[in-house]
Amino acid sequence: MNESLDWQSQINAVAQRFNQEYRGEPFDLPEEVQEMPIFRERASGILQAKLTSPFWKLAQPQKNQRCLDIGCGVSFLIYPWRDWEALFYGQEISTVARDLLNARAPQLNSKLFKGVNLGAAHELHHEANQFDLAIATGFSCYYTIDYWLTVLSEVKRVLKPGGIFVFDVLPESPLAENWAILETYMGAEVLLNPLSDWEKAIKSEGAKIVKTLPGELFQLYKVTF
Known about the structure:
By secondary structure, the chain is of the alpha/beta class. It has ten helices and seven strands.
């Protein structure tokens, strides 16, 4: 199969999974999945805290910085972008999240919010050398490491010299394995890879790992090129 077609089928599956969630539509899951502790954590809201990667602890957006949030979801509505006073640009594959953010965010701060483009992480709709900071959390786990090499190359292109990229990956763990089962039943297959494979890939694209921050589920990386 053509690699780009393979990527597109997974992008479509992930977009559909998140569109369903942002619309508030229930997922039809088998009873044995609903009996898993991780499903009950999701239903009660406990899981969300474990899924959130605090990118600002590694690189807090600064006043007037141009920041690109890739796979942004509804980031501008839930994180303190207005307090940071950073210029927010988004890119997202979920049409529901894109439309919601483009409708509501300008009402919160039309000067800081610069809009959300519809598109995948490997094709950023921006000119070269535009951004001080790029962020990509919560979705690398749905794609192969080969795909992420293309993402790294694209991010390098749109960052200013010396710019920072903060993203997370999903290390192998019992919790990650259970979450991967849940996500697969919700329509988006999760891939588990050793951190050593991720770090080899990062370095192969000429990126330097500045700092890492492990979380309950994801591990954050701060890199420069």
